[in-house]
Design a protein that fits this description.
The chain has 337 residues and is mostly beta strands. Helix content is 6%, strand content 51%. Keywords: Signal.
């Protein structure tokens, strides 16, 4: 009996691009005088009542020989609801249209529980954690198998850690608008190894196929310079700049275990990622953000991708109804932002 081994992997960063744009719980967080926007590479470190509709990601994969692979356009939504001021639940999903070859499909449904462990308003510092579940076989498409990253048949559980720090507590006025956020995820499949009996189409010989779903470490960070903060707490800016937060972001994914042997023509052991500048506009009731995503290597994509999000602040739109926690008081909001 012949024996073949294949490894499931995120080809050409379409999976990583989706991760950057459609993970649940996109929101804005306020700690002391600092507003952390809902960035497109990593989630912000807080919990809020938010609706992101839509999120958008465009990505172009590269084949192993360097030629252009699939082009994907992903449209996503996510809804986050605070249960208490420090705990939230979220749900989201995404629809992907792929060209070259052409196919369409809904991704699996994702849910997330998130909790803020620590906040220090004076130093604009926050730490939070979450558990995300991508529910296997909840995606729907007549031709999802032709997608570069089809929905998994099995669920994936991802513990997450978030951190945010604003520099409004430093003495230099020019440095006060700076802030950083970071996220680390560890994704484990509920079915890491799948053994199936298949048949070679040429010889007709049956063989055992072993498919491994790697455990993955995803890590990313943002460096922000908040003109919104500068206008509110340092010195007044022209109207056109007052609500903007430019940033530079990056997100990377590395397989860490259950990878299997290196397979010619596949990036089974390769770290993939994107970096790039971004810009966020913070309105009274919504946020609009856009990011240019530059692939870090050939495995990550063929050329620059784009991500964008329109995020509605339900806690500001309806603070006494759907925008407040189910239990307990709402979060404190400073008046000058």
């Amino acid at each position: 009996m012949a024996h073949k081994t294949s490894v499931a992997y995120a080809g050409a960063l379409i999976a990583a691009a989706a991760l950057a744009g459609v993970s649940p719980a996109r929101s804005h967080t306020i700690v002391g005088n600092r507003l952390f926007p809902a960035t497109l590479s990593v989630d912000d470190p807080g919990v809020n009542d938010e609706l992101a509709l839509p999120s958008f990601v465009y990505a172009a994969s590269a084949n192993y020989d360097g030629t252009l692979g699939a082009l994907s356009y992903t449209f996503a939504w996510e809804y986050q609801k605070t249960i208490t001021a420090d705990f939230s639940l979220a749900i989201g999903s995404a629809f992907t249209h792929q060209a070259n070859p052409s196919s369409n499909g809904w991704g699996n449904i994702e849910t997330q529980a998130k909790y803020v462990f620590y906040q220090n308003p004076e130093h604009e510092f926050i730490i939070a954690g979450a558990v995300n579940v991508e529910w296997g076989h909840t995606g729907a498409s007549p031709d999802f198998t032709s997608l570069a990253s089809p929905p998994d048949r099995y669920s994936t559980v991802t513990p997450k850690l978030y951190i945010g720090k604003g520099f409004g507590d430093v003495e230099a006025d020019w440095a006060k608008p700076f802030a950083i956020t970071a996220e680390v995820d560890y994704s484990l499949s509920t079915h890491p190894i799948d053994v199936t009996l298949q048949q070679d189409p040429d010889s007709g010989i049956n063989y055992i196929a072993l498919t491994q779903t790697p455990t993955r470490l995803t890590y990313g960070a943002t460096l922000q310079y908040s003109l919104l903060y500068m206008n509110s707490y340092v010195h007044e800016l022209p109207e056109v700049f007052r609500r903007l937060i430019p940033a530079f972001e990056g997100i990377f994914t590395s397989p860490v275990s259950n990878i299997g042997p290196s397979v010619p023509g596949e990036w089974t052991h390769t770290t993939t990622g994107v970096v790039g500048p971004s810009l966020y506009y913070i309105g009274n009731y919504f946020q609009l953000g856009v990011m240019a995503q530059l692939p870090i290597n050939q495995a990550s994509g063929k050329h620059i991708g784009v991500a964008a999000v329109l995020d509605f602040f339900l806690d500001d739109i309806a603070p006494e109804t759907i925008g407040r926690p189910l239990f307990g008081p709402p979060q404190a909001r400073p008046g000058r932002i």
